[in-house]
Amino acid sequence: MLARRLQLSALLLAAGAVLTGGLGAATASADIPWAACPTAGFQCATVPVPLDRTGAVPGTVNLSVQRVAAASNPSKVAVVPLAGGPGQAALPLAQTFTEVLQPAIATRDLLLFDQRGTGASGSLSCKSLSERGSIVKLAEGCASELGAARGSYRTADTVADIEALRVAGGYDKLVLFGVSYGTKVAEDYAAAYPNNVEALVLDSVVLPEGPDPFQRSTLTDAPRVLRDLCAGSACSGATDNVTRDLSSLAAKLRKSALRGKVVLSTGKRTRLSMGQSDLLSILLAGDLNPTLRAELPGSMRAALRGDGSPLLRLAVRSEGLTTGLQLRHQSDAANGDSDALFLATTCEEAPFAWTRAATAEQRYQEITTAAQAIPKAQLGPFSPAAAVQGGPIPLCLGWPDASPQPAASAPLPPVRTLVLDGQMDLRTPYEDAAQIAQRIPGAAVVEVPFTGHSTVSSDASKDSSCTKGALATFFAGGVPGACAVTSNPYSPTRRPPTSIGAIKASSTSRRTVIAAAATVTDAARQIIGDALALSAIPKHVGGLRAGNATVNRDGSFKLNHYQYVPGVNVSGKVTASRSATITIRGGGALSGKLTISAAGAVHGTLGGKKVTIGAASSVRSSPPTVEQALARLPLLARR
Known about the structure:
The chain has 21 helices and 19 strands. Helix 1 packs across helix 4, helix 6 crosses helix 7 and helix 7 packs across helix 9.
């Protein structure tokens, strides 16, 4: 009975917070009924809040909340991490947030919750999203399943939930730590309740006005990101001008699709075609998978020279990491991530250039007209069609809105702010993040080198030292400086050779060794790439030209007639540390058997003759091991 009274009290406090709004802080009362969690050191509770605070749609949402209480919290402050998406649950990432935010929680509580519609807070799901049909029909079906409640999962609703938790938790102020979409939630809360915010930490910034449905900053910044990737001589083996190649390829794909065959993980080949929107998808997927970004310059150059296989393979691998309805992995479902919530939030509140009450057909006409009016300078190398097709617009064309047009974003308050953004981030480009310093004078903005989306989990610097150092300095009261110069652990790869003869070397023996070593490295890159996408080690990966590799749990693998160079079959075993014992035959290469050490030294027999090459003249450069890649897995912002 006591627990029931406490829950009812929290519900009334939540409603009261809506009435006071940003006019004044509601009095904190510490009414959340905390109990021990199964995870040591965490306390758990459920806090009910109204589904619709206007009362038009009845019901409640039970927010699942966890806390790590500080030994001493004299200022009554909580640090609130806000996950990405919209649609990503935060509680499955509790241990990650705890580790990342150690500098902040010595004298502050850590307060975590699954945002409404995700994870244990009433995760939304739609059967229609697993059915076959057009995107428009799938979205219409999901909206119908959710009913009128679909209009109650906007950012504003989550902001009100945070205020309810602050009041019920007994906190005077909050430190809001947002990642990706979570940055918009943090910004909107700060604008609505400026007196209740101690500080903001914004990682991979979505501006307060929300994501641009046309993705104009993504389109215009794509050349800059590739130019930075290839700075100096980093792309010397791939291309002599990566931005020229991007423009040329985008123009070519606008006229006709690139068609060819791709090797699946089973080793079987299938036909595939791709257009400019698929090229944009690869660029966006590279935010979370640096192996895609590393292979793109050479793959684009190859496609322009008539070898489409490398680029088509990237198109296949990019699926599941692009904006919109993804090919979801089992781990996403286990983590409570919700595609239905992504649709409900995005479609209800994104600033689409169409009439909200219009039909899907009229919306398409209006959005197409608006896209065609975008100045060319705001589209980068892409066309208006890519602006329409590449983002959330196709998903929301058939979504009937159940809520009014969102209010314009309010100014951000002058609170202590740290902004983190990756140099290679195209989902939320650094150029957007830099605007926060113009809106919040004194905000510290840190650009993290060779890093894509969600710097706290994908910082490419050694041991994530730049991001960790910036957080430690900020929470110690200082102003973080620029990141130190660092090397790219996923440096751009060479353009794949189209024959053994295309490999520059002094002899056929040397060309064979280089081809064999490059084949081992290519397989390792595919395994790492799929591991980053799946959050787990894959069972198989396909070769570039033919064959596949069978992968073991420890990251070692077996090559099964794997082809990277056309016709050159490589089979054998590779350890987790990348030492290999392989056989080579076909494609003009010398047949034989080689052993390649982890350091790159080679010995064996080719064409009946002994071959020995010392590690000092290594024939390959290796990407990080699978273990190293998974240790930096970008968990905090998958969308």
